[in-house]
Amino acid sequence: MKKIMSLLLALCLLVTVFSMAGCSGEGAVDENTLQLTYWIAGGADSVYYPTYEDNPCIKYVETLEFNGKKIDFQFLVPVTGAELDNFNTLLATEEYAGIMDMSRSTTSASELYADGIIHDLTPYVEQYMPNYMALLEKFPHLKMYVTNQVDGETKYLQLYGIREKAQANFMGFCYRRDWIAKYGKNPQTGAAFTYGFEEANNGETWHDDIIFPSGNSDPIYISDWEWMFEIFEVAMADLGITDGYCYAPYFKGYMEDGSLYTSFGGGAPMWYRDTDGNAAFGGDSDNMRAYLQCMNAWYENGWIDKQFAEHTGDLAYAIDTEKVHTGKVGLWLGRTGELGAEMDMDDAYTDGIMVCGAKQPINDIYGADAQKGKTPDSMYQMSQLSSALVISDKVAEEDIPTVLTMLDYFYTEEGGALLAFGLNKEQVELIQDEVYPKFNLPNGAYERVVAEDGTVTYVAEPVTYEDSQLGNAMCLNRIATGVFTEAMVISKDSNYHSYAVEAHNHWDFYPNLGYPEKSIMAQFSTEESNAYNKVHANVDTFMSTNVPKFINGSLDIDNDQDWADYSTMLNKYSPEKITKVFQRLYTGS
Fold first, then answer.
1. How far apart are CA 531 and CA 518, in angstroms?
2. Are strands 171-176 and 355-358 parallel, antiparallel or unpaired?
3. Are 579 and 271 contacting, i.e. CB atoms less than 8 angstroms apart?
4. E-assigned strand segments in 115-258
5. What value does the mean pLDDT take over residues 150-162?
6. What are 199's strand-pairing partners?
7. Dihedral-angle region of residue 357 (phi above 0 means left; psi in -120 to 50 means alpha; beta otherwise)
8. Are 287 and 365 in contact (CB under 8 A)?
9. What is the DSSP letter of 415?
10. What pLDDT score was predicted for residue 25?
11. Which pLDDT score is estimated for 200?
């Protein structure tokens, strides 16, 4: 029995090794077909199809020819939650794929190239990727993000997915407009506001005549926010809410992307690009001091959650969600699903709730003139660039033209539609696959409609956006490449409720010009990457320990000695080293 068990164990190990080797195999199946392995960060639930090769869109792409050959795809998909470990393990064991999504890589493309793991695509992209290059010509500001500097030479080591128009932001500042309508007064006349829901267009529509102190119908300035906070206090007192608050900052007291900090003169609390195009660091700036003066004033007024620094496990856009969702918070950094009347639980605190989105406010109270009246310019926004991919040495050099021709197909309108929506009716009929009909999509996932004036609209089947898991499984948005045309982006965003569309317009009203995109950091050299990781860790630890102390008054933000001591200690961690790295990437000097 022991011998039999040993034999079975050996056979199992052999099968495992063979399977792994098969998954990382590359090359010609026959003279007309190229086998290609592709690592992606996530696939689809097996309820839709067993493996990602069974995605109907992949089956369609496998019917096409690229550079005279068809592609036979094999996907390497990690277990959910183990994506980073899986990527690094495959690199360490040299079992990595021919194409790799870089979204989970802790190694930069420059490092992978220096180690001989990935190809330099520079000699090939212009000839075999005309659609990709045309998009970079159309959006020249993206060029600095998609190339890498290697020994003074500009190289294409990665290929990025591109959106002709950035997708609407999924998060931003949210506030209880119903509290303002019910408990507020017109700041000019002192009259009560009129407000409420009414039936219109087969749904409920909110209306009000709210005017803020700035004279606008929406909050624009810090003074508008403070006016709101005073009203929120009245609302919570009337409702008997004793554990609520007006606002809670992130537990660190700041967010690296800028967020509320950028309202106080622009920029971000760590590294950012200033209005002159130069790299800068904001941790000890006058803008930071003005921001903290505001946060401390709010804390002293009782407007900030006294326990904000304890929410260390909360995501920035999901701080203290239990209190938010039970109607005890006036303003927060939230998500699309919290807008409008979505959180109405028909109870004492949420009955009649109306949540609206707000722009980044403009400071008109704190600091010197340099910190007042400035347009916010650094915050989290969806990028025009999505994840990058690289082509490894598993792909033979003579097969690079075929692989790039295939990838360039996804930068056409037809290829992009596969990423954004999935198959159309003709493509479903061509491959005769059972998946689409099984999930009530016999006519495809979308219809392309052209108006008389030439305007293109994509009309998605409702089930694909009502059930996001199904929608993701029916398209190819997992493969980290290709183009979302402006029409595709707008068509997808149009599925949102009108309140969400209005909020998205507020959240993206000011363009992010300062906060560095991940793609710029992907261009760090090995030495620069190591330096960044070390300096960032030290700076972030120091700031996240001390910034909350200025907010809660343990350190006095108005005391010059306290501020000087903080600045001196912060600069001992040499943030200027990383400023110089960003300066090289931004300006080449």
1. 16
2. antiparallel
3. yes
4. 148-150, 153-155, 159-163, 171-176, 195-200, 203-208
5. 90
6. 204
7. beta
8. no
9. H
10. 55
11. 56
Q: How far is CA 91 from CA 76, 81, 445, 529, in A?
A: 13, 18, 36, 18
Question: 210: which strand partners?
Answer: none
CA dihedral 45, 48, 52, 54 (to 10 degrees): 170
Contact status, residue 43 vs residue 74, Cβ threshold 8 Å = no
CA atoms of 426 and 431, how far apart (whole Å): 9
210 pLDDT more than 90: yes
86-91 contacts, C-beta under 8 A, 24 or more apart:
87/39, 90/24, 90/39, 91/117
Residue found under tokens 């096409």: 64
Sign for the CA dihedral angle at 100, 101, 107, 113 comes to positive
The two three-digit tokens of residue 330, written as one number: 């006036």
Condensed to tens digits (0 to 9), the pLDDT of residues 462-506 reads 999 889 899 999 999 999 899 999 899 888 777 778 888 899 999
What is the predicted pLDDT for the residue at 525? Answer: 78
Higher pLDDT, 153 or 129: 129
Confirm if 365 and 297 have CB atoms less than 8 A apart. no
Does the global pTM surpass 0.85? Answer: no
The residue type of 308 is F
Q: Where are the beta strands (DSSP E) in 396-445?
A: none
Lookup result for tokens 């959180």: 343
Query: What letter represents residue 137's amino acid?
Result: E
| CB < 8 Å & 24+ apart, contacts of 566-569 | 566/284, 567/284, 569/542
Read off the tokens for 331.
């303003």
Q: For residue range 367-383, what is the model confidence (pLDDT) as tens digits?
A: 999 999 999 999 999 88
What does the block give as tokens for 5?
Answer: 């068990």
Tokens encoding 454:
């030439």
Question: Two tokens at 530?
Answer: 């190591």
Q: Residue 281 and residue 576: Cα distance in Å, rounded?
A: 7
Handedness of CA 354, 357, 359, 360 (dihedral sign): positive
Cα–Cα distances (Å) from 213 to 223, 260, 463, in that order, read 8, 20, 44
CA nearest neighbour of 566 among 558, 575, 555, 574: 555
Task: Share the mean pLDDT of the chain.
Answer: 91
For residue 301, the Cα-to-chain-centroid distance in whole angstroms is 34
Contact present, 173 and 360 (Cβ < 8 Å): yes
Measured CA to CA, the distance from residue 237 to residue 487 in angstroms comes to 48
**What letter represents residue 83's amino acid?**
E
Decide: 376 and 362 in contact? Cβ < 8 Å: yes
What amino acid occupies position 114? A
User: Would you place residue 18 in the very low, low, confident or very high pLDDT band (cuts 50, 70, 90)?
Assistant: very low
Do residues 582 and 279 touch, judged by C-beta distance below 8 A?
yes
Whole-Å CA distances, 256 to 157, 288, 536 = 27, 12, 11
DSSP output for 291-320: HHHHHHHHHHTT-B-TTGGG-TTS-TTSTT
Residue 98 Rama label (left phi>0; alpha psi -120 to 50; beta)? alpha
Q: Residues of the chain with pLDDT > 90: what percent?
A: 79
CA 176 vs CA 325, 368, 556: distances in Å = 12, 31, 32
Of the candidates 20, 43, 30, which has an alpha carbon nearest to the alpha carbon of residue 72?
30
pLDDT given for residue 519 in this prediction: 79
Residue 199 has pLDDT above 90, yes or no: no
